[in-house]
Amino acid sequence: MNPVEETYQRFARLRQTALTVGIVALLVSVVGFGVAGKTQFFRSYHYAYIVWLCLTLGMFGLTLLHHAVRGSWGLPILRFLEAGTATLPLMLVLFLPILAGMRELFPWTRPEVLQASEHLQHKTGYLNVPFFLARSALYFAVWIALASALRRSSLKQDETDDDTQAQKRTNLSAPGLVLFVLTVTFAMIDWVMTLEPLWQSSIYGAWFIVGQGLSAFAFSTVVLLLAGRHKPFADVINPKLTRDLGNLTFAFVVLWAYTSVSQFLIMWSANLPEEIVYYIKRNEGGWQYLSGGLVVFQFLAPFLLLLSSRVKRYTNLLLRVMVFILVMRVVDLFWIIQPAYGIPTLRVHWLDISLLAGIGGLWLAWFAQQVCAAPLLPRHDPRLQEAWTYERRASSVA
After folding, report:
1. Within-domain flag for 271
2. 264 within a domain of the structure (yes/no)
3. How many domains does the chain have?
4. 389 against 274, higher pLDDT
5. Is the Cα dihedral 142, 143, 148, 154 positive or negative?
6. Is residue 255 included in any domain, yes or no?
7. Which of 117, 179, 285, 294 has its CA 20 to 30 A from that of 373?
8. Distance in angstroms (rounded) separating the CA atoms of residues 315 and 330
9. Angle at which helices 350-372 and 3-36 pack, to 10 degrees?
10. What pTM, to 2 d.p., does this model score?
């Protein structure tokens, strides 16, 4: 067995392991439906789903960005970005339980809540179940159609060495990025912000999109660095690539801090009852410790670490930083979503963990399957040859 086939086998083993873990965790969670009650089950399911959906959309957004700007930084991780994006049909299927639990999740779906709030009654033109379902169907239709077209074009270039396919992907990705920003913004408003229907934020979509990009950069870099110990990735990983990936992740860390602080300052200075309550509930009952922890561990620590050229040069150090960022992204979404359910004190239910593992297991299995379904690196791209040339030159200088 040659080294490349061994790499395929490693992803195949990841698929089998992840699928087993996912199925077992979901079976345990189904038992929890009867033990903990349907309200807790749907809340935990919704949280876990949003975590993995944000990673999926982040991978999709980076795919569009890579094809639009045609940067060499995206070539070594392109197959991982495409594989993550290819999980969108799975996420569509996994969205169905959220539809089943809408009354448990979204207050605006309950007639008694609408009757008690004149403010909500003015929003019924937008916040109604048929329109919600139609919008959700539109989001997935746009995402899956765009992702499928890009994937087909990428694989066609691998097979035919047709250079015009790259330009076609650029032509599609430029307007595709506009559609992506619009649809993801409205999707996050519909699926997360309306958990608190009296609250609103004009920067909410950008806040989530930046967080999704941060998750995707961290995840794809982790996979690349782990796979980079073996061929063919070992041939393209070099200090220039790790520096580029580290710098781009650093940029998203700063953007996340900027959008977070901007949203906080605007609402806190305005001091409006509907808006300020969002931060009040997240700064009491133990949530304030999580708020402070996010400032330190999702912004300050990665900011300082990624400033170091040493961290970005040595793969083991960069790998640890990226894993740490991924963990903090899960915590950040917990901070955003859990208080929105009306949970007054900080707590972690075991269903939050089991469903996170269950959905994650299915997602990783699908991801690994998609990685194995295509060449591990894009073929016929001269920029990959430049990476090999850089590595050989760097080795000879050393």
Report:
1. no
2. no
3. 1
4. 274
5. positive
6. no
7. 179
8. 23
9. 150
10. 0.94
